TrEMBL record:
Pfam families for this protein: FGGY_C, FGGY_N
Species whose genome carries this gene: Actinoplanes awajinensis subsp. mycoplanecinus
Listed name of the protein: ATPase
Start and end residues of each Carbohydrate kinase FGGY C-terminal domain: 285-482
Family: Belongs to the FGGY kinase family.
GO terms for MF: kinase activity
UniProt-listed InterPro entries: ATPase_NBD (IPR043129), FGGY_C (IPR018485), FGGY_Carb_Kinase (IPR050406), FGGY_N (IPR018484)
Cross-referenced PANTHER family: SUGAR KINASE, XYLULOSE KINASE
Length: 540
């Protein structure tokens, strides 16, 4: 049975699968929530758990403490175990396979004793501009601000004391995996946000490694870069087992037993590709949450470097063009909170889902071009528009109509605008072809709204459906299952298409000509108003 079939597995069968360890567990540390999904033999989600958390802005750096990582993981696993207990009447003592994913990129640096040298620097930080620019020029390859190598080189440029004591650097997923297994490895998709990958070899680009070592010679690093980076593994390769210490880290109660096989740890971009069956060439997906990004699997290399486009890989190692925007739905969430507060002040009772659905559906009746309204959703810096810090803004021209429908359409347009800039590079400058585009994430929960506007923004049909109901946590669970369930020689694409997603249901929205023209007009005003956004950063 596939995860898309409607026939429910009997509770007794699921209980037996749990007791026999014929399950896979996926855990993903997202920007605002840690989520765990347990899947059964048919790859359907059979239990879930979650824990909300939030990053901190400390000394002008976006970070999470390692204490918050582990307390959050333990709370998440406890919620999952409670769900298993409530639904099936058994304790979750083990699982056949396990996978960890997390927000991509960033910088976690450790010394030889495994001690953290500097607070975790997340993908959200944009204070690596000098490093990004210099490395991109050196390699002839776009190195985004948030990549681990940009953080490392910026630390070298800043002459940070910790550089001389650095013994190992990794991503958040790599760190958690290391502590659960003792293995310092990364899935190739996550590794491609650490340092450029040579898709022919499946490892870090040897020529660029040599260039970097030459660049930093005599500037503090004690080892060649290759010795500081985690090993790279493709999907389907064994990446260690859950140790006794690792099991206690996840479950201090001692109920969870060691021994689960772990797949290579991945980033949330890679798990999003898996969760939407978008690992084949000429397929793509858009993920929209705290950040928003598009992943397009390419037929071949691009003609030249573009600062708006990152080159990463699928979890299987195929080349992907990634348009990553630091700012997604957070400003929309803030406005929804304001409207909910107003409703409460009026004495109305409206839950969060109702507030969002009401506001989003109103946007469908808004002026197609935004009606003279303009919004910027930047809470943090946005490299695509060369914005080093964020200042959310809403403005309008005199005589514009400030109605709810157009206001909400403008806010949704703003959440998609930076993505559009990057997609223009791929679709217009590089003539990249797409056979299908999937959309997932919180922005698309209200049926037919953000999906319709995204189709207009990129002038491409956009599909949503039951592909990614549990998101990236389900995606990494599928990668864990791929490790243990695949047939000899079976590719990840074949496993997803032929086994996991057989019979998947999709709803596809074609671009509407009026909305396409309206979004084009909005984008002309958006780009023209970017100096206003920069002025807000400069003067507030």
């Amino acid at each position: 049975m596939t995860m898309t079939e409607t026939v429910e597995r009997p509770v007794a069968d699921t209980r037996e699968a749990i007791e026999q360890g014929r399950t896979a567990l996926g855990i993903e540390l997202g920007s605002t929530r840690i989520k765990a999904v347990l899947i059964g033999p048919g790859h359907e989600a059979i239990a879930v758990g979650s824990h909300d958390w939030e990053n901190q802005f400390v000394d002008r750096t976006w970070t999470y403490s390692l204490d918050a990582v582990w307390s959050g993981l333990q709370a998440c696993f406890a919620a999952l175990a409670a769900d298993v207990r409530e639904q099936y009447g058994v304790e979750l003592r083990g699982t056949g396979a396990l996978g960890v994913s997390a927000m991509m990129h960033g910088y976690l640096a450790f010394d030889a004793e495994g001690e953290l040298l500097t607070p975790f620097r997340t993908w959200r930080n944009t204070n690596t501009g000098d490093a990004s620019e210099q490395l991109s020029e050196l390699f002839g390859y776009n190195i985004p601000h948030r990549w681990s190598i940009a953080h490392l080189y910026q630390a070298v440029l800043n002459r940070e004391e910790h550089v001389g004591r650095l013994a190992h650097l990794t991503t958040l997923a790599g760190y958690v995996h290391w502590k659960l297994t003792g293995q310092q490895v990364l899935g190739v998709g996550d590794a491609s946000g650490v340092f450029p990958i040579d898709t022919a070899t499946g490892g870090y680009d040897a020529g660029m490694l040599a260039q970097f070592d030459q660049l930093v010679a005599g500037r503090g690093l004690s080892s060649p870069l290759a010795e500081l980076l985690p090993a790279v593994l493709p999907a389907g390769e064994a990446a260690g087992t859950l140790t006794a210490d690792g099991a206690r880290l996840l479950d201090p109660s001692g109920t969870l037993q060691p021994g689960a096989a772990l797949c290579p740890p991945e980033g949330d971009a890679g798990t999003g590709m898996v969760a939407t069956n978008s690992v084949a060439r000429r397929t793509g997906n858009v993920s929209a949450g705290t950040s928003i990004f598009a992943m397009i699997v390419l037929d071949g290399p691009l003609s030249r470097m573009h600062p708006e486009v990152d080159l990463v890989t699928t979890p299987a190692g195929d080349l992907v063009a990634m348009v990553h925007c630091n700012n997604g739905a957070s400003e929309l969430n803030a406005w929804a909170g304001l409207f909910a507060e107003f409703a409460t002040a009026l004495g109305a009772k409206a839950d969060t889902n109702t507030v969002f659905e009401t506001l989003f559906r109103a946007a469908l009746d808004g002026a197609p071009d935004g009606g003279g309204l303009m919004a910027f959703n930047n809470l943090s810096g946005e490299p695509i528009t060369k914005l080093h810090e964020g200042r959310p803004l809403f403005l309008r021209v005199p005589g514009s109509s400030l109605d709810l429908a157009t206001f909400m359409r403008t806010q949704l347009y703003a959440a998609l605008a930076t993505l559009r800039i990057g997609m223009d590079v791929l679709q217009k400058a590089e003539s990249v072809q797409l056979d299908r585009m999937f959309a997932h994430g919180g922005l698309f929960k209200t049926e037919g709204v953000a999906q319709k506007l995204l189709a207009a923004a990129i002038n491409t049909p956009v599909s949503v459906g039951d592909l990614a109901a549990e998101g990236g946590a389900w995606g990494i669970a599928i990668l864990a299952a791929f490790l243990t369930d695949r047939q000899p020689g079976q590719s990840l694409d074949d496993f997803l298409t032929g086994t996991v997603f057989a019979g998947a249901r999709l709803d596809t929205a074609a671009p509407d000509a009026v909305d396409v023209a309206g979004f084009d007009a909005f984008m002309q005003r958006y780009v023209a108003a970017l100096p206003v956004q920069q002025a807000a950063v400069d003067h507030t």
